[in-house]
Design goal:
Shape: flat
CATH architecture: Alpha Horseshoe
CATH superfamily: Tetratricopeptide repeat domain
Radius of gyration: 18 Å
Strand content: under 5%
CATH topology: Serine Threonine Protein Phosphatase 5, Tetratricopeptide repeat
Helix content: over 70%
C-alpha cells in the first residue's frame, strides 16, 4: 500500500500503530452495550454486569485467574431477560476467548460448563459446544473437541430446544 492508502484509511493507521505498540485496548464490555434501555430493571442488570466485567478484567490482568473465573460466573447468574441471551452469549464467548489468550483454556472450559445453564436456545447451546470444542482443541484434547463439534452438529440438525 502506498502513502495515499494511509491517508484514505486513518483508522487503519491507528489500528496498525496499536497492534505493533503492544498496547492492549479493552473494548467496552458486551453486556454494557445498548445500556440505554427504557427498561429500568434491564438497565440496572446491565450496569451491574458492566462493573462485574471490569472486576473480571482486572483480576485477569493481575493473573488471579481462579478469582476471575468465580467473578465471571456472577454475570451469568444474574436474572437476565430471555431476549438478552444473544448479548449474554457474546459476553461468554469474549470471556472464554480471554482465558484462552491468557493460556488458561481449562478455566475457559470451566466458565462455559458453569454458565451453560443460563442459555436456553438451540443457537446458544450450539455456540457454546463449538466454543468448548475450540478450547479442547487448544489443549490438544482432540477426542473431546470432536465430541463437542459432533454434538453441535447433531443439535443443529435436529433443531431441538
Amino acid at each position: 500500500m502506498d502513502t495515499r492508502g494511509w491517508k484514505e484509511s486513518p483508522g487503519l493507521v491507528v489500528a496498525t500503530l496499536l497492534l505493533f505498540s503492544g498496547l492492549e485496548v479493552s473494548p467496552v464490555p458486551v453486556v454494557a452495550q445498548k445500556a440505554e434501555s427504557s427498561d429500568p430493571v434491564l438497565s440496572k442488570i446491565k450496569s451491574q454486569a458492566e462493573s462485574q466485567h471490569e472486576i473480571v478484567m482486572i483480576l485477569v490482568r493481575k493473573k488471579e485467574y481462579a478469582k476471575a473465573l468465580d467473578e465471571a460466573g456472577k454475570i451469568f447468574g444474574m436474572k437476565w431477560p430471555v431476549d438478552q441471551e444473544p448479548l449474554l452469549l457474546k459476553e461468554l464467548q469474549n470471556l472464554s476467548d480471554r482465558f484462552l489468550r491468557e493460556g488458561q483454556a481449562a478455566l475457559g472450559l470451566q466458565l462455559l460448563e458453569r454458565s451453560a445453564k443460563a442459555f436456553k436456545t438451540t443457537e446458544s447451546r450450539v455456540a457454546i459446544l463449538k466454543e468448548k470444542g475450540y478450547l479442547h482443541k487448544s489443549l490438544n484434547q482432540d477426542d473431546k473437541a470432536l465430541e463437542c463439534f459432533r454434538e453441535a452438529q447433531r443439535l443443529e440438525a435436529t433443531g431441538k430446544q
